[in-house]
Amino acid sequence: MAPFRAADLLRRKPVQQVEGEHPPEGLPRTIGLFQLTMLGVGATIGTGIFVALTTAVPAAGPAVILAFVLAGITAALTALCYAELASTIPVSGSSYSYAYATLGEFVAFIVGACLLLEYAVSASAIAVGWGQYLNEMFVDLIGWRMPDAIAKAPGAGGVFNLPAVVLVGSCLVLLLRGVKESTRVNAVLVILKLLVLLFFVVIAFSGFKAKNLTPFMPMGIAGVGAAASSIFFSYIGIDAVSTAGEEVKDPRRTLPLGIVLSLLIVTGVYILVALAAVGAQPWTAFAGQEAGLAVILRNLTGASWTSLILCVGAIVSIFSITLVVMYGQTRILYAMSRDGLLPKVFQRLDPKTHSPDLNTYIVAGFIAVLAAFVPLDVLVNLTSMGTLIAFAIVSLGVIILRRTQPDLPRGYRVPFYPVVPALSVAFCAYLIIGLPLDTWLLFAVWVAAACALYFGYSVKNSKLRS
After folding, report:
1. Residue 4: DSSP 8-state
2. What is the H or E stretch that residue 269 is in?
3. Where does residue 378 rank: exposed (0-12), middle (13-18), buried (19+ CB within 10 A)?
4. How confident is the chain (466 residues) per 10-residue block, as mean pLDDT?
5. Of 315, 28, 344, 36, which is closest to residue 192 (Cα–Cα)?
6. Integer distance in angstroms from the first to the last C-alpha of the chain?
7. Could you give the CA distance from residue 342 to residue 116 in angstroms, rounded to a whole number?
8. Calpha distance 271→277 (Å, rounded)
């Protein structure tokens, strides 16, 4: 084996080689445009509305609507960049694979570490909120509530978040059955939660009061930026769509369409629900309010059945998003393992279902532990950091690939190049700056651990090295 050289950190995987890594015995192509779009919507609509709204509104006041707009603009700019790279390099691994072909192995590995942080921590943050809506459902049905010790996150009065562990275990069982079954179930769950959110909007607008929107920006523009930074993790679905690159039919056409369609649906729903929510009750009432949307409906109607419908929708929604995020993480680990940067256990496929079984068990175990023992606010901000860095790298990748390989076949091209990718990087940087200091420190620890793994294992076992 050749000795390590500093130049190895910059070695890039040729795009043609990346595209050629889809052996017949690999991941089967079973996902169409509708299922892919539902995958993106399912991975996105969830905590941003059902859980994180109760922390974002106190930070920005009624101007949380602008926070969703700001986050949506950033996501839209990045989505266009994702669409181009996904149509050019239609493989598993999303921004990790794109970075490997454009920025080199070391940057790709760090992006992979950001994605693992993004997916594992977001799934944990999502799972933490499940117990809140389960409790509200139990109250409406039988007048009973689970003890805080097992129903809440540590730091919010809980000790061990049991519902979160049950949720992750349920998603594990479904994922082990194979991607075809998982995406079908997810599509049904996504349609159901969209109907539930439409139900909320109709009722909430019936109690809409313009005075609840004043003062509109009590925390100033800084509050809007802080709220946008914290809720940005709820746009993770963009990346989740591209992790399915090797399992999509006609990927050069389907991937960019799926990314753009899912973003349009998600951003519209987010802004509509946020406007209805802050118009239905004073913004100061959101602080510390668990299962916020269900409480709003109960207060407006005085009937428990309305909040019960919302709770069921939230339970379904959080299950759906956890399922998709866990799926996305297993595919990133699969791609990194295939490149030799992680142990081979992550690329082993079950001979019957063609799903990475041991990989899925490991992911589920890690996410369950985080969800059971780590406070929610820490999880949310860490996820936003990982997501924003991965998004910025993808936008840079578009610029680099256009300059280095302009003749590559592209199923889609970013409009107004290079303005759109440059703006995407700038918006991501703005939101990263808005994250709190403790998030930066935890992220630095994570990157240091990733560097230790890369130099201790990956750089020696990389397939490109041989």
Report:
1. P
2. helix 251-280
3. buried
4. 64 65 57 81 69 76 87 84 80 75 86 81 74 79 80 70 85 78 75 86 88 87 83 70 73 80 85 88 76 76 80 80 81 87 86 80 86 68 79 88 84 86 91 85 90 91 80
5. 315
6. 7
7. 12
8. 10
Query: How many beta carbons lie within 10 A of that of residue 22, not counting itself?
Result: 17
Dist. CA 78–CA 466, nearest whole Å: 34
Report the b/e string of 47-79 with b at 16+ CB within 10 A: bbbbbbbbbbbbbbbbbbbbbbbbbbebbbbbb
Look at residue 12 and tell me if it is in a domain.
no
What range defines the domain where residue 418 resides?
31-458
Model pLDDT, residue 411: 77
Q: What pLDDT shows up at residue 423?
A: 93
Whether residue 6 lies inside any domain: the answer is no
CATH of residue 189's domain is 1.20.1740.10
- Predicted local confidence at residue 419, as pLDDT: 92
Give every CB contact of residue 155 below 8 A, 6+ residues apart in sequence. Answer: 375, 376, 377, 378
- Output the six-digit token pair for 16: 């043609």
Q: Retrieve residue 180's tokens.
A: 């075809």
In whole angstroms, give the CA distance from residue 343 to residue 293.
43
- Residue written as tokens 């390099």? 89
Please report whether residue 361 resides in a domain. Answer: yes
CA distance 108 to 92: 14
Inter-axis angle of helices 94-102 and 376-404, nearest 10:
40
Q: Is the peptide bond before 418 cis (omega within 30 degrees of 0)?
A: yes
Q: Is the pTM of this model over 0.90?
A: no
Domain count within the chain: 1
Single-letter amino acid, residue 288: G
From the list 47, 59, 435, the residue with the least C-alpha distance to 278 is 59
25 is a domain residue: no
Of the candidates 228, 10, 239, 229, the one whose C-alpha atom is nearest the C-alpha of residue 115 is: 239
**How far is it, in rounded angstroms, from Cα 90 to Cα 256?**
10
CA-to-CA dists, residue 12 to 56, 404, 463, angstroms: 40, 12, 11
Neighbours of 322 (CB within 10 A): 29
Q: 31 in helix, strand or coil?
A: strand
The answer for residues whose C-beta is within 8 angstroms of residue 10's C-beta and 6 or more apart is 104, 105, 106
CB atoms within 10 A of CB 8: 17
